[in-house]
Amino acid sequence: xxxxxxxxxxxxxxxxxxxxxxxxxxxxxxxxxxxxxxxxxxxxxxxxxxxxxxxxxxxxxxxxxxxxxxxxxxxxxxxxxxxxxxxxxxxxxxxxxxxxxxxxxxxxxxxxxxxxxxxxxxxxxxxxxxxxxxxxxxxxxxxxxxxxxxxxxxxxxxxxxxxxxxxxxxxxxxxxxxxxxxxxxxxxxxxxxxxxxxxxxxxxx
Length: 205
Hints:
Blueprint: E1 2-3, H1 10-22, E2 25-30, E3 34-38, E4 47-52, H2 57-69, E5 72-76, E6 82-88, H3 101-131, H4 137-141, H5 157-176, H6 180-204
Helix pairs in contact: 3-6
């Protein structure tokens, strides 16, 4: 089964994944959504989430091995995805993968830093688009400039609507495709802010 959900609060995500396990759906991988395997029975699973990225594959393998030696199976995540999912497989292991409050809070700090870095990385692209006139702010004031069909605005009736509707998708792509960049910057800033807020909240607990 495949489900699409988005979480900033890892505690809420853990609770949801544990609920899914009790309903017989066990996390297989988390990539562009959640992929679950249907089990024969429900399970009282303990799922925990960390946020880490690694430059070297060897460091990522050592990281996963450390958790497995402590009774936690790595369910999903790669060295560059950031979000790492673990399931408790040893009854003698504790219910937390973090040794103290500060180390648990730091996963939100690492997540916030990643979101802020991604927002900053889009800024040079937006500046380049503006300098090279790919970003057409004039089109936001006068959208007619996005239509290249000769004499379009002098046409009437069926001829006008046929030409107008035919070219509109291309006009939108020409004029507003670049808006994807500022939208992503804004989203990353919002996610970074929320992650940093969770970091401060968890640190104070």
